[in-house]
Specification:
With about 600 residues, this protein is mostly beta strands.
Length: about 600
């Protein structure tokens, strides 16, 4: 990444002659971003391109300002309170003179602004410091076909801080750090034991007998190169798409180091993202799930992507996506980031062919259509590999891997203010996001597959599944919100103990050279598994960005039990095997989004 750092600081020299104001980004938070979605669906989104997240706080403030000033905006009383909340949360960019003000600061120095515990605000420097906390306790009443009921406790103990600010109205900065101890529900613990990593996190240690201890850290600097071009460098997550899930790039994996260039000119938004990620932090998941080991330099992998978003008209947006993943593929693991992929306008497939490199490229298409001031129809097509003659033959050729997403957002359902519905479907064929192993002794492919820290960069289910999502949100009052979710997944899993012969295509870390067959493949092949996830959450905002959540989750997983006959590749199904988790929890959150594990 030294080349990326050099280029970044070369760009920073441009600041000597520029005077373009800059803001940091609003952290990814589905509840927070839902407020912005409502405004976008009403066709008042202004310059915000909703397919690329996170959003700049400056854009959020401008959106709230314009809506509250628009006499034709059809806003409920709760909408107006929500928009004032967005103004208060981004007061430094709001045109409202009252934004962020508090009547009585504590000790005259604390909470001078509603959104900030401590604020420094002068002509050349703005800084806000906030505590971060998430304390929760719950019970997981779980049962499997082979064991009796149990009810272990779940908990989350998160403490930390966040700092954000702007220097000379040109350079924005943000840092976030928390120390966490947690005991997760059984289904989450099963995934940790199988993969060796905590979903969405990096290095961890054991805590007491059943818990986990880990840090969460983010940080970046950003500035404007010109009136239309901004850049960001740091460690965080990104999200591309308009769905609840993303088939292109989601926030499912751990944080990673990246350099992003965002060019907005009128109806165009062009994103360049160059990232350094972690290939394998566990020493090989085939060796067991012993957790990460520390004091070892984990092998690196890299990603480069382009995403062009075009507003064809006020209500219709289309996006074109291209990316490539690659890594340390030679015997000394010292290739590093290939400078060829730093070209911001090249086609990666052509560049890869010219290099003769064993890298993996993908392309995608997104769209979004807002209509009737109440609905948004969106979707994604993702192409891993494509052969038209094999597709027409309908022969289940393994190499035809075209994933798809389609969804609908409907706000103020049946005219009831602040009742919102989202429906979404995702289909991902087997072997999507996989690539082949560069090692003659390993059945795993960490470097060019679409993962970071052994976690999918897209949907958390990996591949080889159908998924249906329904989300109903209702906000009867400004500080009170109810959210219900139903996620149904039908997936084909790989029987354990049979690698490499048992690669049916769901585990994206496996090498696609170990596939079970070249032809006759189909979605959900392998061990048929159905997962039903239902959740209900009631959230009360007791103060600015301070929440009390009461939640209930029901998760049931039904798979076909099997028995090996004479060899790992020879087995028969014995009947269904089920596992169920019933989880109830109460939590207190302060300046942090809910920790969701919806898989």
């Amino acid at each position: 990444m030294r080349r990326l750092l050099h280029l970044f600081f070369i760009c920073a020299m441009v600041l000597k002659t520029t005077s373009f104001s800059q803001s940091v980004y609003a952290p990814l938070n589905s509840d927070y971003y839902q407020l912005i979605d409502r405004a976008d669906i009403r066709n008042y989104s202004g310059s915000t391109f909703t397919s690329v997240k996170p959003y700049q706080r400056k854009d959020v403030a401008l959106l709230a300002d314009s809506l509250l000033k628009d006499p034709n905006a059809r806003l409920s009383s709760v909408d107006r309170r929500n928009l004032r909340y967005l103004q208060d949360d981004n007061w430094e960019w709001s045109s409202s003179a009252d934004s962020g003000k508090t009547a009585k600061p504590i000790l005259k120095v604390l909470y001078q602004k509603k959104n900030a515990f401590y604020t420094v605000n002068n002509k050349n420097f703005l800084m806000e410091i906030n505590p971060v906390a998430d304390f929760s306790y719950g019970k997981d009443y779980n049962q499997t076909s082979n064991t009796s009921n149990s009810s272990p406790s779940t908990f989350l103990n998160t403490r930390g801080f966040e700092i954000r600010g702007v220097v000379d109205d040109k350079i924005g900065f943000y840092t976030f750090l928390t120390d966490n101890q947690a005991a997760f529900p059984q289904y989450t613990d099963n995934r940790i034991q199988a993969t060796g990593v905590i979903p969405g996190e990096q290095f961890w240690k054991t805590y007491k007998t059943t818990g986990y201890d880990f840090y969460s850290a983010k940080g970046y600097v950003d500035f404007k190169i010109s009136k239309h071009i901004s850049t960001q460098f740091g460690q965080d997550k990104n999200f591309i798409g308009d769905g609840y899930r993303s088939l292109l790039l989601s926030d499912n994996s751990a944080d990673y180091l990246f350099w992003k260039i965002d060019t907005k000119i009128g109806c165009l938004d062009y994103i360049n993202l160059f990232a350094q990620m972690t290939a394998d932090p566990t020493g090989g998941i085939g060796a067991g799930a012993g957790g990460t080991t520390g004091d070892v330099f984990y092998p690196r992998k890299y990603m480069a992507l382009h995403y062009l978003n075009l507003k064809v008209c006020k209500n219709f947006t289309i996006g074109l996506f291209e990316n490539i993943t690659f890594g340390n593929t030679d015997s000394l693991h010292n290739r590093g980031f290939d400078p060829t992929y730093l070209n911001p306008v090249i086609f990666y497939n052509a560049a890869e062919n010219g290099l003769g490199a064993p890298d993996k490229d993908h392309i995608g298409l997104t769209w979004k259509w807002n209509f009737l001031h109440h609905c948004s129809f969106y979707g994604t097509i993702f192409l891993d590999e494509f052969n038209i003659s094999e597709l027409r033959a309908h022969n289940g050729w393994w190499g035809n891997k075209q994933a798809a997403q389609v969804g609908l957002k409907y706000i103020d359902v049946f005219g009831l203010p602040n009742l919102d519905l989202q429906l979404e479907g995702n289909v991902v064929p087997p072997y999507t996001y996989q690539t082949y192993s560069f090692s003659t002794v390993s059945n795993y492919s960490y470097f060019a597959n679409y993962s970071n820290y052994l976690q999918p960069l897209a949907d958390p289910n990996g591949a080889n599944f159908y998924e249906g999502i329904g989300i109903l949100r209702y906000q009867p009052a400004h500080r009170l919100a109810f959210t219900g979710k139903l996620i149904y997944t039908k997936i084909g899993l790989d029987p354990p103990g049979g690698y490499p012969a048992m690669n049916y295509g769901s585990n994206i870390s496996l090498s696609n050279t170990t596939r079970v067959a070249d032809y006759g493949n189909f979605i959900t092949q392998g061990v048929p598994t159905q997962i039903l996830y239902i959740s209900f959450t009631a959230s009360l905002q007791v103060a600015h960005n301070m929440f009390i959540d009461l939640s209930a989750i029901l998760r049931q997983q039904v798979s076909q039990a099997y028995s090996y006959q004479s060899s790992p590749g020879n087995y028969v199904f014995l009947g269904p095997s089920s596992a169920m988790d019933k989880i109830f929890s109460l939590s207190f959150r302060w300046n942090i989004a809910q920790r969701l594990q919806e898989f």
